[in-house]
Amino acid sequence: MNKDAVLDSSVLMQLYHRQMLVRLTEEEIAKRYPEGKMRCPVHLCTGQDAVSAAVGCALKPDDLCVSTHRSHGHYIGKGGDIKRMLAEIYGKAGGCSSGKGGSMHLVDRSVGYIGSTAIVGNTIPVGVGLGLSIKLKGSHQVSCVFFGDGAVEEGAFFEAANFAVLRGLPVLFLCENNFFSVYSPLRVRQPEGRKIHEMVRGLGLKAEDGDGNDIVEVYTKTKNAIDYIRSNSAPYFLEFYTYRWREHCGPFFDNNLGYRSEQEYLEWKERDPVELYRRRLVEQHQVDPKKLEQIDSSIMREIEAAFEFADASPFPEEGELYTQVFADSQGGVK
Amino acid sequence: MNRKITFAQAVNEAIGQAMQRDRSVICFGLGADDPKGVFGTTLGLQKQFGPERVFDTPTSENGMTGIGVGAALNGIRPVMTHQRLDFFLLAMDQLVNNAAKWHYMFGGNGNVPITIRLILGRGWGQGPTHSQNLQSWFAHIPGLKVVAPASAADAKGLLLASIFDNNPVVFLEQRWLHNMEGEVPEQFYTTPLGEAQLLQSGADITIVSHSFMSVEAVRAANILKSHGIHCDVIDLRTLAPLDWNTISTSVQKTGRLMALDTSHSFCSYAAEIVARASEQHYTKFKAAPRRIALPDVPAPTSMALTKNFYPSAREICEAALQMVGKSVKIDAKLFETGSPHDVPGPWFKGPF
Ligand SMILES: Cc1ncc(C[n+]2csc(CCOP(=O)(O)OP(=O)(O)O)c2C)c(N)n1
C-alpha cells in the first residue's frame, strides 16, 4: 500500500532537497524584503512549494517551462540558478534578466526555463507555442505551463488549450488551484461546484486533480502525465489544490484583511507540505532526522551565499537602459 | 475653502455620487470590492450600493469589457476598473472594434456610455508590464474619449463627466497621484471634457502637460519663475477631444512650445501636439518645439535603470533654459524631493 515504494531513495531525497530549497529561499526573501533592497513586487509561493519542487523534478532538464507572476518556486524547482534569480530581484546586472525584468520576469534557458511573465494567462499560449515548436522539431520534449486558478478565466486559456488538443501538442497544463485571485475567492469568479479539471475535459484534455501539498502525489501524477504526453502525443491537464500562505504580493501575512479566515489558513498550515514530507521520510522511510537537518543547513548556507552574491553584485550601468531593445538581426537569413 | 481629500478619495466620491444619482450606473472590475478597494478608489461602494451594482469579476478582461459594452448599449452606465492599464490590453478588441465604433458604424443607432478606469503604475520596480502609459494608443482611435486628470478636484469632476458622457471614455489614473491631496467640493459637479486648464501663466514658454507630468510641470514652472522665466502651464485634463484652442492661443503668445508626456517619445501624444503646432504656427516659433517624454525603451525594473528614465522638473527646467537661451545654474537642491527616485513619497511602501 505504500505508494512511495515505487520511488527510489535518490528521488525521495531529491524531492526533499528541492522543496526545501524553494521554501527556505522564499522565506528568506520574506525576511529580508523589508530592508528595501528588493525593489519590485514579489509574489511568494510559500505553502505551494511541493508543486514547484515535484513538477520541476519530474520534468527533464531539457523539457521546457513557462510560468507566471508567482514563479520563484517554478524557477527553482526546474533547477534555475538561485544566485541569478536573487540578483534579478535585487535589480542587479548579474540578474537572470540583467535587472530589466525583476521578480516577475525570470529566465534560465540552460535548464529549459523559458520565462515567466506578469500578465495573468499570458504564458499559456506561449507554452502551447513551445509545444508546437517541439512537435515541429520532433524533439520529444514536453512544454510545461504553470498557471493559477484565475488564469483559466482568461480567453487565452481556452484558445490555447483548444489548439493544443487539436494538434496533439506535448503540453503539460499545470494549474495550481490556491482558491484565490488576489483577494477574490473562487466563488465570485467561477460557478459553485465546478471543478476546473472536469471542465477542461470538455475541451478534450486528459485531466486529473490531486493534493498539491503531498509532494509524492504531485511527483507521481506529474510523471504519469508526462509519460502520457510523450507516448500519446497529446496534452495533459493537472490541477493541484494548494494554498498560498503569505499575502498575494509582498512579504507579509494578510489574513487580517478579512478576505479569507485565519482559521482557513491555519488548517492549510496544518498540512504544511514541508512538514508532511519530513515526517513521512522519517516515519515511513526511516530517514535519520539528523540527516535532514544537515541538508537544511547546507541549503541555508547556499541561500545565504546567494543573497550575499545578489547584494554585493553591481547595479547595471546607466547605458544598459538602452540595450537589448532589439535582438541582433545578423544571421537571420538562411 | 473646500475640504481637502486625496485623488483616490475623489475618485471614490465621484463613483458614489454617480451611483446615487443614477441607478443605471454600475461599478465592476477585478477587486472592485476587495479589502483595499483598488487603492481606496472603490472602498465602501459595494456596502452602500449592493453586490448587484458593485461587483468583483472573473479574471477575464476582454470578456468583461465586452459585457460592459453590451450592458451600455442597453442603457447601463458601467464604470469598469483595472488595477493596471497593462492588464486591460487583453480587451483592446472590445474597446477598439466595438466601444469606439458602435455609434458610427451603425449610423447613430446605439451608443456606448462606458467609462474604463485604468491605473498607470510607476516606481518600485513595476517594470515593463506594470507601468505602461499608452494614452496615445487610445487617443489615436476615433470615437474614444481619453481623460487624464492631474488633481483631486479634476479627478472627481472629470470622472463624473465621463460617467455621464454618452460615449466610451478611457479614464487614466496615474498611481502616484492617488495619494495627493487637493481641495475638492463636496457636492456633485462635472468638469467638462475637452477643456484644458491653465495652471500658471507666463509669456515665455508654453508647457503642455497632462496627468502626473503636470505636477512636475508646476514644480518646474515655479523654479523657472524664480529665474525670471515665465511659463504658461496647460494641463490638458482631456487628451481626446483635445482643447486645441488653449494651446494655440498660448503658443502664438509665447512662440515656444514644450510638450510633456508620461510615455515614450516616439509616436507619442506630445508628438501630436508638437506636430500640430508646427503645422499651424511655424512662423511664430522663436525656438524649436520640444518633446519631453520617456526614452523609447521598455520600462526596466532595476532602480539603477529607472534613475534617468522618468523626466522630471529638472529636465523641464533644462529644456526651458535652452529654449530661451539662458545659461543659469539652478541649485540642484531645488529638484530634490526627499524620497528615493522610485517612490512618490514616504507613504509608498511597495510592493504594488
Ligand atoms: C491580465 C491580468 N489581469 C489582472 C492581473 C492582476 N493580477 C496579478 S496576479 C493575479 C491573481 C491571479 O490569480 P491566479 O492566476 O489564481 O494566480 P495566484 O496569484 O493565485 O498564484 C491578478 C488578478 C494581471 N497581472 N494580469
Task: Please give a handful of descriptors for the protein shown.
heterodimer, A: 334 residues, alpha/beta, Rossmann fold, 6-stranded parallel β-sheet, two-stranded antiparallel ribbon, B: 352 residues, 2 domains, 7-stranded mixed β-sheet, 5-stranded mixed β-sheet, 14 helices, 18% strand, globular, binds thiamine diphosphate
What's the short story on this structure?
The complex is a heterodimer of chains A (334) and B (352). With 334 residues, chain A is of the alpha/beta class.
How does this structure look, described?
The complex is a heterodimer of chains A (334) and B (352). The N and C termini of chain A lie far apart (57 Å). Chain A has eleven helices and eight strands. Chain A has a single domain, classed as Rossmann fold, CATH 3.40.50. With 334 residues, chain A is α/β, with parallel strands linked by helices. Chain A has helices spanning 9-32, 49-58, 72-77, 82-89, 123-137, 155-167, 196-201, 215-232, 262-270, 273-285, 289-312; strands spanning 64-67, 113-116, 143-148, 171-177, 180-181, 184-185, 206-211, 236-241. Chain A is globular, with a radius of gyration of 20 Å. In chain A, the strands form two sheets. Chain A has a six-stranded parallel β-sheet, sandwiched between helices. Chain A has a two-stranded antiparallel sheet with strand order 5-6. By secondary structure, chain B is α/β, with parallel strands linked by helices. Chain B folds into two domains: 4-183, Rossmann fold (3-Layer(aba) Sandwich); 197-335, Rossmann fold (3-Layer(aba) Sandwich), CATH 3.40.50. Chain B contains 14 helices and 14 strands. Chain B has helices spanning 7-21, 37-40, 45-49, 61-73, 85-88, 92-99, 102-105, 135-139, 152-163, 212-225, 244-254, 269-281, 303-306, 313-324, and strands spanning 4-6, 25-29, 54-55, 77-82, 115-120, 145-147, 169-174, 181-183, 197-200, 205-209, 231-235, 238-240, 257-264, 290-294. In chain B, the strands form three sheets. Chain B has a seven-stranded mixed β-sheet, with helices on both faces. A five-stranded mixed β-sheet of chain B has the order 9-11-10-13-14, with helices on both faces. In chain B, strand 13 (257-264), helix 12 (269-281) and strand 14 form a beta-alpha-beta unit. Bound molecules: thiamine diphosphate.
